TrEMBL record:
The lineage of its organism: Bacteria, Bacillati, Actinomycetota, Actinomycetes, Pseudonocardiales. It comes from Amycolatopsis thermophila. Residues 12-84 form the MIP18 family-like domain. Pfam families: FeS_assembly_P. This is Metal-sulfur cluster biosynthetic enzyme.
């Protein structure tokens, strides 16, 4: 491999790593949302700029995205040093300084934050489990599966789709049952199967969670395009 090919391969690996980092609230990769404003790799130095839909996006979510991007890029073979900067945000200085120092959220916002963000992260992964459940269930119902059977189905009995694997991944993140023999419908807090008597309530909550998540995603995409009108669909999907 030539030096130029190595640089290109490293850049592609960094971009792929950024594709594993999600907006916690929207449960979508930063790369597909258009949140990566710049990505460069030179002589083992990776430099990434992130942008968000508004100047006032919640700093806790922003911190998680910058920190996760830093960790993902730093783990790429061939990357010796990493810089991830949030741009055009009211808390950018504190977030960038804190992530670079590996200081954590509370230390980065000393006197303002009361703790770290793992419970917040888990809360939104649980929402992602509910939203993912609705996506899988809607496809099953559209294919003619009887609603009354849903409480008895296992993950392995569901057609192998991207949505099923996405749901499995989110459950795995929370330590919830995610094997082929585990129930399709589980409580996102406890991992216990959803009893038939709770089916309607559970599915209704899952539907509302998915609708809310997708509505927020649409709003954020539109606001980002208004804020950065030069962004095209191709750049957002780069």
């Amino acid at each position: 491999m030539t030096a130029l090919e190595e640089v290109r391969a490293c850049h592609a690996a960094v971009w792929q790593a950024l594709g594993t980092v999600r907006d916690p609230e929207l449960d979508e990769p930063l790369t597909s949302l258009g949140f990566v404003a710049r990505c460069a790799v030179e002589d083992g130095r990776a430099s990434v700029d992130l942008r968000l839909p508004t100047y006032f996006c919640a700093p806790n979510f922003a911190f998680l995205m910058v920190a996760d991007a830093y960790d993902a890029v730093s783990a790429v073979p061939g990357v010796a040093t990493t810089e991830v900067r949030l741009v055009d945000h009211f808390a950018a200085e504190a977030i960038n300084r804190g992530v670079a120092a590996r200081a954590g959220f509370a230390a980065s916002f000393e006197g303002e934050a009361t703790g770290e963000l793992e419970e917040l992260r888990a809360t939104f992964v649980r929402k992602a489990v509910l939203a993912g459940t609705d996506r899988v269930v809607r496809a099953l119902l559209a294919s003619g599966v009887d609603r009354a059977r849903l409480a008895d189905l296992t993950l392995g009995e569901v057609p192998a789709t991207a949505d099923r694997e996405r749901l499995r991944d989110r459950r795995r993140e929370l330590g919830l049952p995610c094997g082929d023999g585990d129930p399709l419908l589980v409580d996102p807090e406890t991992g216990q199967p959803v009893p038939a008597g709770e089916l309607a309530r559970h599915l209704g909550f899952a539907r509302l969670t998915r609708a809310s998540q997708e509505a927020n995603s649409g709003v954020c995409r539109d606001m980002l395009r208004v804020r950065y009108p030069h962004i095209g669909e191709q750049e957002g999907a780069r």
